[in-house]
Amino acid sequence: MDEAVGFRRASEGFLQRARNVKPDQWSAATPCSEWDVRALVNHVAGEYFWVKEMVDGKTVADVGDRLDGDLLGPDPVDALTQAQRSALVALEAPGALAKTVHLSFGDFPASEYAKQMTVDSVIHSWDLARATGGDETLDPELVEMCYVEMQKTAEDWRSAGAFGPQTSPSDGSTQARLLALTGR
User: Fold this and answer.
1) What is the domain partition of the chain in residue ranges?
2) The pTM is what?
3) Which residue, of 4, 37, 125, 155, has the greatest Cβ tally within 10 A?
4) pLDDT digits over 111-158, tens only?
5) CB count in 10 Å sphere of residue 171
6) Alpha helices by DSSP H, the chain
7) CA Rg, the chain, in Å?
8) Residue 107: helix, strand or coil by DSSP?
């Protein structure tokens, strides 16, 4: 699957779950112990806003603190939608996936960055669904792609603090193995 297509599908899954958040659920706890639902959605919106900056060749220093803090404002779903659209435009532009992005931990092909953003979207889709009582069933193709990626990089993510300790899968499905690998 093309990395931009994977990101589109994964980000649409997250956005759909965000659209289903009820007004009284924005302060609900999530599997990410440091975030409630609003903070989780803000994190993902921030990640999406970063995509355009990175694909445009900017560095973390170039962006500075412009994407810190509350990015959601009074309409979290609208802000998330704008962030997702910005990321899609950046990743789907001709030649975008062949560019080099300057991440905080090194320079990488934008195609690899798109995979990272896909993994982030898939995992956080489950987190959001779990927090709000939504549909926790993830796109099987994306789950498979993310599981293959995470088998190679989960320990890097874990050592960076993005994942907790690996858990035992709730069943033998690839989704359960992916979630366990990412500490859920």
Assistant:
1) 3-181
2) 0.95
3) 125
4) 999 999 999 999 999 999 999 999 999 999 999 999 999 999 999 889
5) 8
6) 3-19, 37-55, 60-63, 76-92, 110-132, 140-159, 174-181
7) 16
8) strand
- In this structure, are residues 29 and 39 in contact, taking their beta carbons and an 8 Å threshold? no
CATH of 3-181, one of 3.40.50.1000, 3.20.20.300, 1.20.120.450, 3.30.365.10: 1.20.120.450
Helix axes 3-19, 140-159, angle to 10 degrees: 90
Kindly write down the DSSP assignment for every residue of 108-128, as one continuous string.
EEHHHHHHHHHHHHHHHHHHH
Across the chain, mean pLDDT equals 96
- What's at 133, amino acid-wise? G
Query: What digits encode the pLDDT tens for the residues 67-109?
Result: 999 999 999 999 999 999 999 999 999 999 999 999 988 999 9
Q: What are the b/e assignments for 55-81, b being 16+ CB within 10 Å?
A: beeeeeeeeeeebeeebbeeebeebbb
